[in-house]
Amino acid sequence: MNPARRLLLANKSWAQERRSIDPEFFARLANGQQPEFLWISCSDSRVPETQLTVTDAGELFVHRNVANLVRADDRNVLCVLQYAIEALKVHHVIVCGHYGCGGVKAAMTGPPPGRLTEWLEPVADIYQRHRAELDLLPEDERWAKLVELNSVAQVNRLAETDVIQNAWARGQYPYLHAWVYSLPDGLIQPLLTLSPKGPQDLLGT
Ligand SMILES: [Zn+2]
């Protein structure tokens, strides 16, 4: 069977099943969305955000790109952020990196020539800034540590945006979370949470 045809057939049976379980499901979603979360992660096919967080349609507003970057010159992510915060009023923004990220590795080892080189510059910069400590580690640990540093750096960058600064000046949301997802065991590890009051106890938020 044509692989794309397989997706269309799967979609049809999914829609039928959802309707049979909850006849109002699609009508409710068609009326609008009120997601509580903006999810920013890597484009990697192994990080399916709704599956690994057991969330349903309507719960996550999503932006994905190579290496889950929040770049000040990326109008795409900035528009998504502004809409999520100011129109949808999400309460939590999650940047979820993942171990085994090819984009992060490419920034460390030298990406193939082309657009990726430029795209991954912020990760290469993080690597250079932490090179003294990272180069002491075996390659796999160095890669994993850079994945973590990258997620934290993106959350810190989010906190500097005018959208987040304005939101924090208005009230208590959003909370910003840096997480990392582990491909080998499917588990998410929280690394950092920022709120208008500053860094939060991870277990308390
Ligand atoms: Zn990745």
Automatic annotation (TrEMBL):
It catalyses: hydrogencarbonate + H(+) = CO2 + H2O. Its EC number is 4.2.1.1. InterPro entries: Carbonic_anhydrase (IPR001765), Carbonic_anhydrase_CS (IPR015892), Carbonic_anhydrase_sf (IPR036874). Transmembrane segments: none annotated. It is an enzyme of class 4 (lyase). Its cofactor is Zn(2+). Keywords: Lyase, Metal-binding, Zinc. Reversible hydration of carbon dioxide. This is Carbonic anhydrase. It comes from Nannocystis bainbridge.
